[in-house]
Amino acid sequence: MNLWLRQLKKDIPADLHTPVELARFELGSALPGLKTELRVQASMGDAYRIDPLDDGSFLLTGGSTGLLYAAYRLITDRLCGQEITRPVSSSPKYALRMINCWDNADGEIERGYAGRSLFFRNGRLDYDADRIRTLGRLLASAGLNVLCINNVNVHYPAQLLLEDYLPDLAALADLFRPFGVKLMVSVDFSQPMRHGVATADPLDPAVRAWWQDTAKRVYAAVPDLAGFLVKADSEGRPGPFTYGRNHADGANMLAEALRPFGGVVVWRCFVYNCRQDWRDTKTDRPKAAWEHYAFLDGAFSDNVILQVKHGPFDFQVREPLSPLLLGMKKTKLAMELQLAQEYTGHQIDLYTMIPMWKELYEELPADNIMSIAAVSNLGDDENYTGHPLAAVNLYTFGLLAWDPDVDMTAAVTRWCRLTYELDPLQEQTLVELLLSSRRTYEKYTAPLGIGWMVTPHDHYGPNPSGYEYDLWGTYHKADRNAVGIDRTHEGTGYLDQYPQYFRDKYGDPASCPDLFLLFYHRLPYTFRMRDGRTLIQRIYDDHFEGLEETRAMADKLSSIVFPEPDASVIRERMDKQLYNAREWCDIINTFFHRLSGIPDEHGRTIYD
Ligand code: GCV
């Protein structure tokens, strides 16, 4: 098993209690001969400064977590062959850099592709403390500082907040504390009703009192808990709508309970009608978040953060930035990404996310974005992420949440170098391959921004009509002439939720970027793309190219000498990806060919 920072001592002592103690240990173990002085300047928080001194030593200045980040910076630069020769100052762009685990108390992980939970077994917190410390190191070295340990779908019994279980939560928080990682827990909005309160109405005094009392007990056990994460009125979860209240009523009630302890409420905006009738043409699911939240801009307490999925649907390969992230200027926001490869290959197919994130960050203007969160891709597999190369997503997620301007080739190279000892040519091959993997995956799956042609529920592999007559509001409406949904002003009006520059960019099919074409527009297969090809030809070409690129990727990957056991896992998953890519290519091309009756101009094999 190879993790980044493989060079560091495997055993992290249990008797290190603060980030500064840990920083000293890590520096001593990774760079034994190097003299460093650590100077705490509490007001600097996570920020740090590294000064190289004339005698070859280094002065590190920062808040206590800042010093830990400085230590990892010095260590990782050195391990990557980079010397710090000038003073370096660094501070994170986003205050909360969060991983959201969807781990259930029974040890299962919703959308988990790397084994079972690292934290839970048989209904309780139960873990291998050494593995947790290694995880703490991985998170801290990537600059990540909040870990929500349980699923937003809080399945009963939701025990974490109960008296009997708080000591376990406190013990886990103690383990993560030296790494500067604060815990967060997902809570069930209806939880008071499991404890003798007749309602969960956020305006009911008994409900408010229950949460206030609960917060008091939880914070007595874990004084630095980051806060609560909430999925309410979404996919069957309880929430304020049951009582005719809005989401500001719900979030502010919890915020009031957490305020005395400095906790935040992270309130998810993934709210839509998940029981849509496919015959209903008025409802367009991507419009839902805006409709539920935009009118509440400015109504949330200052310790509420609205967490918005990066796109208006649900972590598809390509979606536009959610209009909420552009429009809610008076509300604290978090952008939610997904490291778990739910729709992007289940940590079987290679899918390096940084190119996609870069595009999102470029569009993300608002300074009310406080925080970046990502659904975890972790599990108890020996390598933590199922596919050894999927760890690049965890690492680079952290680098970008700290500094979105980080160069993506540099970030991926850094991960490769910290993880493997490859010769320069192999390293370059791996970096190129990782960086191109998202586009390749995009080519062989659903075309040009449509999404959702996956196998229902499981979300791996193709099924172009799998969701077409279902309840989830995810339709492409392909018929013999055309495909896609018109989301312009003349269509569903989704595009009207955006600022004018955005509407101008995407509103006209003649100028809309190709890769979003079928997200915004319904077009005939004979539509002429800017490069002269017809839409149908572009679909065929992309799919054949995606398959060819996957084959080339497999060849290149086999030329890289990975250590075992990574080599075997990588090989075995690549074989599965080859199979998957072929299924996608053939099924999507056949689907469109059968519908349209238009042949491929190059006469390649399509199965009718
Ligand atoms: C945790 C999608 C996933 C669900 C997930 C949900 C969410 O619908 O398929 O597994 O539930 O998103 O983000 O809440």
From TrEMBL:
This is Alpha-glucuronidase.
